[in-house]
Structure formats: C-alpha cells, structure tokens
C-alpha cells in the first residue's frame, strides 16, 4: 500500500490526475473538495480556517482507515502549506505505507486560461480571484522534499498517467 498526496495550485489538474491514479492503482480516493461538498462548503468561495481543520480531520480519519484496510490511498488536496504534507506523511508512516508527494506544476498563464475556460463552461465550481490570489501567494512548494513532478499539461495524457501509475505501484519505502 502507498499513500500519494497531490500538491499544487487550483486548476493544475490535481483532481483529474488523482481520479486517474486512484483508478489505475487501484486506490481509495480521499478528496478534500468532496468532503467540503458533503459538508455544504465550497472552497473556491473561501472557507474559514476552523472549517478547513474539520475537513482535514475527516480526511485524515478516512485516509487512516483506508491504509489500515490495506488500500493504496490517493489524497486530492493542494498539499500546501508544508505542515499539511507533514501531517499526511505522519499518517502514512504510522501505517507503514510509503508516502509520495505528486506536485502538479502549473504556470500562471495556463492557470488563468483554465480559470477563464471554466468560467465559460462552468464544468466545476468557480474559484474567486481573491481565493486564487491568496492561494498562490501562500503556496509553499515542496522544493526541499522528495517529490514526483508532473506538468499540468500532462494530467490528461494517458501515456504519462500510466507511467506515473507504474511508478507509484513500484515505489517502496527506503
């Protein structure tokens, strides 16, 4: 069993990639956006910190339960700030599961293009400009950690996704 945590900015393709990884491994998916939705919250509009804390508590509980049941786990979250990654790392370590950060990198230009396209299509809930700005300004990239880097443009490339699934399947704790 392995735990993979998505990391990156909004509209990078983390949810798309997380769903593909969960299907390909197979793994159980823990999505903080879906937990927020279950709770009647919408992250793209801004959520108070105490509500995010509760969403994280629920997500951690689900992740632990899946690992304890012997499942691979893919966590769909922003993976920022650093303490968020560290808490997931502790959960994986307690279960004896390898922990991987999958950093989906997106340029500001591509992010803006995807935001504009989404505002036209409404394929997913909007993220306000203020939330996008705050997240970009506070994002703590995992530059001093072992990560798997994925370009945002590759999240829909079946061959690259398949290669990433293989890499996750073969990963072992050092």
TrEMBL record:
InterPro entries: P-loop_ATP/GTP-bd_All4644_prd, P-loop_NTPase. Keywords: Kinase, Transferase. Transmembrane segments: none annotated. The keyword Cytoplasm does not apply. GO terms for molecular function: kinase activity. This is Kinase.
């Amino acid at each position: 069993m392995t735990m993979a945590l998505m990391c990156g900015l909004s509209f990078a393709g983390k949810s798309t990639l997380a769903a593909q990884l969960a299907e390909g491994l197979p793994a159980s998916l823990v999505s903080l956006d879906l937990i927020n939705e279950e709770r009647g919250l919408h992250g793209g509009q801004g959520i108070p910190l105490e509500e995010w804390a509760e969403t994280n508590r629920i997500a951690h509980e689900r992740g632990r339960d899946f690992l304890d049941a012997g499942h691979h786990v893919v966590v769909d979250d922003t993976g920022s700030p650093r303490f968020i990654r560290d808490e997931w790392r502790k959960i994986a370590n307690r279960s004896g599961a390898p922990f991987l950060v999958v950093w989906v990198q997106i340029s500001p230009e591509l992010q803006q293009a995807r935001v504009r396209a989404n505002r036209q299509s409404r394929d997913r809930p909007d993220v306000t400009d203020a939330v996008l700005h705050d997240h970009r300004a506070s994002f703590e990239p995992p530059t001093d950690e072992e990560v798997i880097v994925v370009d945002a443009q590759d999240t829909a490339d079946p061959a690259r996704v398949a290669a990433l699934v293989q890499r996750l399947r073969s990963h072992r704790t050092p």
